[in-house]
Amino acid sequence: MKFGQWLQNHPHFLEQTYWLTHRVFTWLDPLIARLGYERMDRWLRGPEEWTKRIVFDCRMCGQCILHSTGMTCSMSCPKNLRNGPCGGVRANGHCEVFPDKPCVWVQAYNRSLEMPRYGDEILLIEPPVNRQLEGSSAWINMLTGQDKVVPKAWDQIEVIPIAEK
Amino acid sequence: MNNEYKSDGRLERVLRSGRFAVTAELNPPDSADPEEVYQAALVLSEVCDAINATDGSGAHCHMSSVAICALLTRAGYAPIFQVSCRDRNRIAIQGDVLGAAAMGVSNVLCLTGDDVTAGDQPQAKRVFDFDSIQLLRTIKIMRDQGMFLSGRKLTTPPRLFLGAASNPFVPPYDWRPYRLAKKIEAGADFIQSQYCFDVPRFRQFMQKVRDLGLHEQAFFLVGVGPLRSEKAAEFMRTKVPGVHIPDAIIERLRKTPKEKKVEEGKRICVEIIQQVREIEGVSGVHVMAYRQEELVAEIISEAGLLPRPRIGGLPAQDSKVRPRRGNRVNGV
Fold first, then answer.
1. A-to-B residue pairs, Cβ atoms closer than 8 angstroms
2. Which of B104, B148, B200, B271 is the most exposed place for a label (fewest CB within 10 A)?
């Protein structure tokens, strides 16, 4: 976990890596489509979980929003909060549930400030989690657009409510 | 804010008329006897505009908030239905919201909820299917678009005044006003805050809230409450999640002789109410006193907040202003 934490404390490097991964997968999309998304999902699940768990303590929700949450996995918050910290954060910035661990959202916020590319996205309102995607590859879901599917009545707010931060 | 009322309740009317609102928390009984709810409500109803029915606060099991709301509306009181994301998934919550609205509930407070480990049954499964912001948005969709999250239509949408919580007193302090902005964007009409014992910190927070223009988009009610002794204060700040009490207040209680501690705790609370009332953007107070309902009445009285305005009936009563749609259609 130590290597992961060291890496997470370099959020700008990670957001660049995310951006690059995104580009690579988009570029590979035609090939992945030919091989079949389902098959590639089965192949990629393992490696994706392994790498993301080391760095981010990933929970494989299948709809990754790391770049919108300061390159910090919001699903590793015990309450699975995707829109910001709860009101139970301790005075020293530690978690209400695990007093020895720093609050995921305190870290996420601090890291987002060091992310010129995606930092502002922490102000977006994230839709409810699609629990059906749990365990599947977020990379493949990104290509198929599955991770962007929201409940039918959910009105996605595209504009960040406050531009200035 | 547009002028059309979103609910049929008095809290929205008191706030929109520009009056300083008072809400209070009812301590839910560990009992199957409705009389205990009525006894507690009787004390509170004369001194506040709406009564909060807590939803397993501190992750302790009590009578459910939806049932307390049902009892309160039956007696004509105006409850605020607290919904926490800890115990129910999206299917249960949307059903409960409809049910509560059908029973005459006009206000809903959307909360994340204390974690199960804060309570006496830490073995329980955490649900947290929604977070509080997704919950707010979902109820707003039900109210404004008249459908469930799935898109299925409601024959009659609920008319609700939507509330959210805010805790300016815990880290990350700089992020807290933005978190509030997100909640208002998601649909919050009013805000009830965590216990305020640190007025300077709250002033700082409200400065940022005003800079962002948020005080014009939602009504902010500051959470306050009495401390019985320095021991109670110490317990609250170590055991109750999210409560911040400055050392100065604990010191002040420690120096007070034993028989005057309750009085001093009450005085501190009244002083805080008077101080936050002066802050621009504060629309009311939310009084929380664990198992001390009689103290709530004294505090509100001593803070000079009585009598409560009588909009559409007695204080904390809703029934007179609630249109009975079914009857009206039939011309009865």
1. 126
2. B200
